[in-house]
Amino acid sequence: MTPSAEIIVELQALGGIIARAQAELAADSLLDLSSLEGDIEDLCCRIEGLPAEDGRYVQPRLVAIIDDFGRLGRSIEAKMEELKSQIGNAAGRRLAHSAYSKNAEPEK
Known about the structure:
Elements (H helix, E strand, L loop, with lengths): L2 H24 L9 H13 L3 H53 L4
């Protein structure tokens, strides 16, 4: 298998990881993408070392992966905003409950 073909296979696998991460995020599961950083750095170095003619074959899949990561990033940001809102609402309810409980206690 040529280096460009190997890279394309790895990019396709990366696309699968991103798709699974999107599904896990939609299902409110925890994501652990920390292992991707080293793999992506290695892949980028290998892509950088490709001859220009081989890079033409890799470029469309690479652009698609970048777009996939962008969508995943936006989904993560939206989920974080949703969680911040839920946390804020819960804190407000807890504060209201605490205030109500203090006011509802009978005087001694």
